[in-house]
Amino acid sequence: MHVVVPFAADRPKTRLADTLDTDERREFADAMLRDVLAALDAVPRSLEVTVLSTGPVDGVDAAIEIDERPLTPAVNDRLGTAPTAVVMADLALATPDALTELFAAEADLAIAAGLGGGTNAFLARDSAFRVDYHGASYRDHLAIAREEGLSVREVDSRLLAVDIDEPADLAELLLHGDGAARDWLVDAGFELSVGGGRVEVVRE
């Protein structure tokens, strides 16, 4: 099975710009990518993993393909051969078990939503499926599958639903993560603060 991991090397994690500077965002994105690749490497089945990056990537043990186009055409050009899975590079809570559940789902399209309505991961077993990443892409992808007459399995996984995009998402990673990305946050001085019934992330 081919697994594509899209990675924005040129403008990583722009929505964290108020929390991390440019170099920090790149380091943090690299750490999350390593976590996703480690989870994929531990899946108990044969996977051919390719990082689909907008620029060079160092220090990862996976094939790298450079494609500077927007996400939709870049991914669609790699869906011609089934089965192909796409797993986003910022799923720092993803585990081998969660990914195995996705890959084992018996449907033409197995798909996991993000908390904000995006599409965090999917496995397409039919080359008729195509992507359209914008806005609430999860609903769009379900509609595309219906138009093509594809069977769909919606995989409800909290570990695949949390993508680290916003400052508030860092709390989820500090609470539940155990990989390189969480270690990077701790080393950078981030910690949880509990007060007034709320959990917030602060930096020392």
From TrEMBL:
Catalytic activity: (2S)-2-phospholactate + GTP + H(+) = (2S)-lactyl-2-diphospho-5'-guanosine + diphosphate
Domain of life: Archaea
Record EC number: 2.7.7.68
Tagged with keyword Transferase: yes
Function: Guanylyltransferase that catalyzes the activation of (2S)-2-phospholactate (2-PL) as (2S)-lactyl-2-diphospho-5'-guanosine, via the condensation of 2-PL with GTP. It is involved in the biosynthesis of coenzyme F420, a hydride carrier cofactor.
Subunit structure: Homodimer.
A GO term for molecular function: GTP binding
Keyword Nucleotide-binding included in the entry's annotation: yes
Species assigned in the record: Halolamina salina
Pfam families cross-referenced by the UniProt entry: CofC
InterPro entries the UniProt entry points to: CofC, Nucleotide-diphossugar_trans
Keyword vocabulary terms for this entry: GTP-binding, Nucleotide-binding, Nucleotidyltransferase, Transferase
Name this protein carries in UniProt: 2-phospho-L-lactate guanylyltransferase
Protein family (similarity comment): Belongs to the CofC family.
EC class (word): transferase
GO biological process assignments: F420-0 metabolic process
Gene, per the UniProt record: cofC
